[in-house]
Amino acid sequence: MRTIDWVGGAVEIIDQTALPGEERVLRLHTVGELIAAIQSLAVRGAPALGVAGAFGVALAARIHVDDPVALAVAVQKVETARPTAVNLARGARRAAALIPHGPEAVLAEACAVRDEEIAASDAMARLGADLVAELCGARPRLLTHCNTGALAAVTVGTALGVVGELHRRGRLAGVIASETRPLLQGARLTSWELTRWGIEHRVAVDSAGPFLMARGEVDAVILGADRICANGDVINKIGTYSHALGARRAGIPFVVVAPESTVDHDTVSGAQVEIEDRGSAEVTAWGEAVNPAFDITPFDLVTAIVTDRRVIRVDRGEKP
């Protein structure tokens, strides 16, 4: 199933905030509704956000077809709905480039973004499974973080797509899914998807990951990325850096799986990336909290980056 799509003149998404208790589909008819869905994390994940950005511009092009000023404002709002993942703005800008050709051309380009992400997921699953088998041998035990399945990528997924491919090949011994802030995306979403795929797994509290690696319960860490900088720094969900440090100490591979659209050659390093803070309300009902949604993993902690086009062996000095 597609977790985000264009259906009958509106954007349809699976509401990720309702899972796992309820499988609810939202129909988004306006740019404001789409932006609210993005900011509430009803739709999230770098590839899915790229598609959402493109579909948001398609909505705007239809609604403001006779008002170029309002259209430009709407496009800007879509591009900046969340600041850290590069795909959102890229998807929006790609669709916006077709505005001079009319709303149908914009929609066709948005659908092309969707279709390319679907194809990218299939390619990443194959390339990533081959790499993990090469690095870890038969039937590895994997730890994954955040949610990187179909919910984050329209279909199949990025890192979780690799997990699914290894399972289909009979080459997977087990999975540990970190619970993951914000909104426990690993415990709610990754666990839900693994259960649907029939993959046995355990959910671990976020801070347990490095200890489980040190205890020899993990053969490799595999996760996604919201942005990959030109030097190989990885911007991903908060907690990724801790898992990278744990993997380095334990001497196990740390593998990032993300589509080529996530590679940002215009950003030299992670130091240039704005890190979104989700605010105190998601953490505590009293006082102030530090609640970054993402962190920066330096490239020298990364073993390899798998995209839909290539495998980048960062541990051998290769750069995106």
Automatic annotation (TrEMBL):
<dbReference type="GO" id="GO:0019509">
    <property type="term" value="P:L-methionine salvage from methylthioadenosine"/>
</dbReference>
<dbReference type="InterPro" id="IPR000649">
    <property type="entry name" value="IF-2B-related"/>
</dbReference>
<dbReference type="GO" id="GO:0046523">
    <property type="term" value="F:S-methyl-5-thioribose-1-phosphate isomerase activity"/>
</dbReference>
<dbReference type="InterPro" id="IPR037171">
    <property type="entry name" value="NagB/RpiA_transferase-like"/>
</dbReference>
<dbReference type="InterPro" id="IPR011559">
    <property type="entry name" value="Initiation_fac_2B_a/b/d"/>
</dbReference>
<dbReference type="InterPro" id="IPR042529">
    <property type="entry name" value="IF_2B-like_C"/>
</dbReference>
<protein>
    <submittedName>
        <fullName>Methylthioribose-1-phosphate isomerase/methylthioribulose-1-phosphate dehydratase</fullName>
    </submittedName>
</protein>
<dbReference type="InterPro" id="IPR027363">
    <property type="entry name" value="M1Pi_N"/>
</dbReference>
<dbReference type="InterPro" id="IPR005251">
    <property type="entry name" value="IF-M1Pi"/>
</dbReference>
<dbReference type="Pfam" id="PF01008">
    <property type="entry name" value="IF-2B"/>
</dbReference>
<keyword id="KW-0413">Isomerase</keyword>
<comment type="similarity">
    <text>Belongs to the eIF-2B alpha/beta/delta subunits family.</text>
</comment>
